[in-house]
Write a structure and sequence with these properties.
- The structure is a single chain.
- It contains 3 helices and 3 strands.
- The chain is α+β, with helices and mostly antiparallel strands.
- The longest helix has 14 residues.
- The radius of gyration is 15 Å and the shape is globular.
- The mean pLDDT is 87.
Amino acid sequence: MPVTVVFKCEICGARPDLATQVALERQLLDLRHGEYVDAEPGRWLTWHGRGMYGPQRYACGDHRGELKALVREHYGTLGWHPWASGPHPWAGRRGTDRARALARTLRSTF
C-alpha cells in the first residue's frame, strides 16, 4: 500500500513543495540527535530532536527563526545543541549504515 509522508510547518501549517518534500523524506532515516538540518530548495529547517530533545520538528523558510526560538525555549537548558548557529547543510545520512550493520550483528548473536 502506498504511503505519503505529510510534513507541516510547526508555526503556520504550510506544506512543502515537491522538491523540498523529497529532500525532507531523505532526512527521515537519518540518525541525527539534537541537530538542525536545512532542506533545500524551499529553505525548510528540520530539528532532529530525538531523546531528551523531543520529536523532529519542521519549519518553512519564513519561520526558521521561530522554530529555533521554540526549540531553545523548551530544550535550551539541556545542552548546547539547540543553540547551534547556521548554516545547517545536509551532508547525507549519518550513522545509518553503521547502525544497520550493528543491528545485524546483534541479532545474529541472540
